[in-house]
Amino acid sequence: MPETSKAKQLLYPVGIESLFIAFMEGGKDSRDAIPTYDTEIYRMDNIVELGIAGNPTTVVKWASNKMFVNASKNSKFTLNLTHVALPQEVQDKMDGVTPVKGISFSNAKVNEYPMFALGFIAPLSDGSKVARWYPRVQKVPAEETFSTNTEESEVKDQAATYEATPLLYNDNTEVKFSEVREGADGITVEDFMKQVICDESEIATIFPDKP
Fold first, then answer.
1. Would you tell me how many other CB atoms lie within 10 Å of the CB of residue 55?
2. Is the pLDDT of residue 4 over 70?
3. Which of 9, 66, 75, 175 qualifies as a cystine partner to 133, CB 3.0-4.6 A?
4. Nearest Cα to 96, choosing from 131, 128, 138?
5. Contacts of 90 (CB under 8 A, 6+ apart)
6. Residue 62 in contact with residue 90, Cβ under 8 Å?
7. Residues 6 or more apart in contact with residue 189 via CB below 8 angstroms
8. How much of the chain, in percent, has pLDDT values that exceed 70?
9. What is the percent of the chain with per-residue pLDDT over 90, rounded to a whole number?
């Protein structure tokens, strides 16, 4: 009996693994070129949960008593991250601050937070994995709570909210990869997460066809 390709199997996510952060060089992208990112990509095994919510708008057009157009557009994703902790260095880069002697300031002026790419890896039920990059992300100021210790030891979850918006260069908001897709032979999520992929034109260079 021929083996069914993985692309046709009923595979489902069984968790979430590493979180990846890559900061955009210059802190902001442009309309003229694919953005570049710092060579250092932070990889952290600290995810408790990642909620992903779109912001779709729908356009419906009726003609000749029938639905002629039913189209949708998603302007951004809201990423709600529950995690154990983030390194102070990563937090400072997200805030766009350069502390002096360990001190930084916030003020009431208009402030545009730096852009960065956020990605993650998630395993599937057969051991294969999927991964994503959100190439243009900013932090959203969130509420903080500091509470007293109790007699019971507990590591409390931390929460952070980010917004993934379209790249100025090509309007891309999300880049997905799956090891079980046809054509992904020889490419792993580890290969995919070695760099931030923003545009289809980069694929042939990063993953050239084998002779």
1. 13
2. no
3. 175
4. 138
5. 21, 42, 44
6. no
7. 121, 129, 130, 131, 177, 179
8. 96
9. 66
